[in-house]
Specification:
The protein is an alpha/beta fold. The protein has 2 domains: about 190 residues, Aspartate Aminotransferase, domain 1; about 250 residues, Aspartate Aminotransferase, domain 2. Helix content is about 40%, strand content about 15%. It has a 7-stranded mixed beta sheet, with helices on both faces. Strands 1-2-3-14 form a 4-stranded mixed beta sheet. Strand 9, helix 9 and strand 10 form a beta-alpha-beta unit. Helix 1 crosses helix 16, helix 4 runs parallel beside helix 12 and helix 13 packs parallel to helix 17. The chain is globular.
Amino acid sequence: MTTIEQEYADARPKSRALHARAVVRMPSGVAHDGRAFAPFPFYVARADGAYKWDVDGHRYVDCWSGHGALMLGHNHPAVQKAILEQARLGTHYSACSELEVRWAELICSIVPGAERVRFMMTGTETTALAIRVARAATGRQHIVKFEAHFHGLHDAVMAAVKDPFEIPVSAGVPPSTLTTTLVARNNDLAHVRELLDDHPVAAVILEPAGARSMVVPTNPAFLRALRELTRERGVVLIFDEVVTGFRMAAGGAQEYFGVTADLTCLAKAVAGGLPGAALTGRADLMDRVAFAGDAKRDRTQRVADQGTYSGTPLVAAAGVAALEILKTGEVQRELNRLGDRVREGMNQVLKTRAVPGVVYGASSIFRMHLGADATELGLHNYTADTARLDRGMGAVGGALHLAMLINGVDYSRGAAHGWLNGAMTDKDVDLMVEAFDRSIVRLREDKRLG
């Protein structure tokens, strides 16, 4: 029998040829680490609604959804109309615009605790600015992050992202940079308290729903207790809602869990699928970025921030159009229903096929793990071994991804997870579950599963 890898490759000659060209000029032939996989990535020709089509004519249900940014799916009419209309008026003014004001007002009306907004381009920039604001406000230097939580690519948060957690996720990070970055165990309030007792901590930062799109889910009770602890200690609580913002509910994970942070980092959905991001939160903290008119204060105490593309009208137009739709919560409620169906359907496949494994997550996020069930992994009571979950499925994970692509479904391969988008319907969920079933069968035929 032809292997999964060979079947995938034989059906994609145009993608193979494009990748051969790409590796000559681009490291690994890709523009993002997550898009590099063997034998080669496929290349997309177009996308619309819930789907995308590669250059060889294959259609995929798109569970990458713009890395989670396309909450409304590809080419939503309202977002597309806003972008095209603004493009005719100019893409970059090097000046303020009414659109950015409306964008900020929308965010503050939707996100719990949002009193001020600062726009930028990427999630990495938002977490870097949030940490700097917290340090300026508290006069302390240390930050606490959690194992496997991802906060972008600036040096201070490169610690403990991937197993083994003892080394940075990237080369080129000076050890001295990480001396003020403390790493806490997930869902372990006693460990956080110990770190706060022993160090002058400016901020605690985490992905509120769980590390890297919920590879390790957060216990809601822990989240509530963490809020109380940080408030008692005068420590700034930063929620990295780059993934969960506007997704789990209109007000993101804060609304979903009923816990409000001091500062919130937003990207992905906040800009309607274009490259845009925002830091928001308490006015007294965010005003550390504001000019006061006092020359000494503005030079020595103000937190500086500037970005060439921050709040540009083209991005603001897309953000406003998307948030006008997302603010009601109707899209999120429907996606959360579909997310429940996806997880239930895939778990039923595993049960029917007698394959050890679990599909877990929350809201419109799903994550697959083959080889152990929820109880064995500690998912049922939030006692999971973070390193084990972070390592994922090993070699079978790559084979599952290729099998799912062959069966018409794409998702984030490295973490074996996906995000649903607002263009999806029950029919698409059925297609995803059927593709998962066929892929499990194919893995068994290829002797990748017992």
